[in-house]
Design a protein that fits this description.
alpha/beta; Rossmann fold; Arc Repressor Mutant, subunit A; 7-stranded mixed beta sheet; two-stranded antiparallel ribbon; 13 helices; 9 strands; 44% helix
Length: 338
């Protein structure tokens, strides 16, 4: 019986407290493309989790993954994929993994950084001269750690020669589908995404999510401006500085915003900062003063004034209302007959 050679062979390195969803999305695209239907046999694609010690690797959600085999020779794979996770763990990659990644790079094997895996590749000195995709959420973190580099945060993944990087989450599935399309075929990639209830494969140039729905637009200039606003939440740019950063006149920028969104750039910036303030109020225990500083308001009084004008209540009252709603929603129903 002839044994079919896989068309796509992937070796995974999982960072401590890696992002489980990013890893799972990538693997599931491979799994579904590897066989007919969803029988999950690794025929057309093969994937292995690699380790220096064979100890389980615990994800950021606390769920451990048992590696399949030791690092060994990287040339047995077509790609080495590094799955990152929590920021504080990134500098703790063991020397054995760094040496393995360098051997892979020296052999011309493409390296893939998923989620904050791009940071790990940079720490290993393997991203110099390459464009790099980073989630807009981690854009400022990246700049703090890698002075002088300008990561790409307005795309879901970036392919630059033998370096491929993506922003994590569902974008991992789209990057995996890109590889499947290249090595196995478009039909296999499309089938995988369809079974995963992902409508269609997205090109790397597709913009990352994260903006309020009201700011959805197809205008390329406006999208770039909105991204720049996200990336400078702490210290918002003036409209003049924003236009200069984008290489256009202030008048042109304002005209595009008026046509695309029917609001000014300043109003859009305020919407983005308010959206982030709501997120922090709902999902963190940070004080309103801290949130005002994090979201680029002049001071806490400024945030309260703007917030009340939109929501009708102060930020603290809004937070309490949300907590009360969650408590009421999660309260168990009274048992029948009691």
């Amino acid at each position: 019986m002839n044994v079919q050679i896989p068309r796509l062979r992937i070796g995974f390195i999982l960072a401590r407290r890696f992002t489980l969803s990013a890893f799972a999305n990538f693997v599931d695209v491979l799994r579904l493309a590897a066989d007919e239907g969803d029988r999950s046999r690794p025929i057309l694609c093969r994937w292995r989790v690699l380790s220096a010690t064979m100890d389980p690797v615990t994800s950021s959600s606390g769920i451990p993954v048992q590696p399949d085999e030791r690092l060994g020779e990287p040339s047995r794979f077509d790609y080495i994929v590094v799955v990152g996770g929590l920021m504080e763990e990134l500098e703790r990659l063991d020397p054995e993994y760094v040496a393995f990644l360098n051997r892979a790079a020296d052999s011309g094997i493409p390296l893939v950084g998923v989620c904050t895996g791009a940071f790990i590749l940079h720490h290993a000195g393997l991203m110099h001269g390459y464009r790099c995709c980073v989630s807009w959420f981690h854009h400022d973190d990246f700049l703090e750690q890698f002075e002088g580099l300008r990561p790409v945060s307005d795309q879901i993944f970036v392919v630059d020669r033998e370096r491929l990087t993506c922003s994590g989450g569902v974008s991992s599935a789209h990057l995996a589908a890109f590889l499947v399309d290249s090595h196995v075929g478009r039909a296999a990639a499309k089938k995988s995404l369809s079974i995963m209830i992902i409508d269609e494969a997205l090109a790397g140039e597709k913009a990352q999510p994260g903006l309020p729905l009201e700011l959805t637009t197809k205008d390329a200039l406006v999208k770039k401006a909105l991204l720049a606003m996200q990336q400078t939440l702490h210290t918002p740019l003036t409209v003049t500085d924003l236009a200069a950063r984008l290489g256009v006149s202030r008048r042109k920028l304002e005209r595009h915003f008026t046509t695309a969104l029917r609001i000014t750039p300043s109003e859009a910036g305020k919407m983005i900062r308010l959206a982030q303030a709501r997120l922090l109020l709902e999902r963190s225990e940070r004080s309103v003063t801290e949130i005002a500083n994090d979201t680029g308001f002049a001071d806490v009084s400024h945030l309260i004034r703007v917030f009340r004008a939109i929501e009708g209540v102060t930020p603290e009252a809004w937070r309490q209302e949300r907590k009360n709603h969650v408590t009421k929603t999660n309260r168990p129903a009274r048992l029948a007959g009691r």
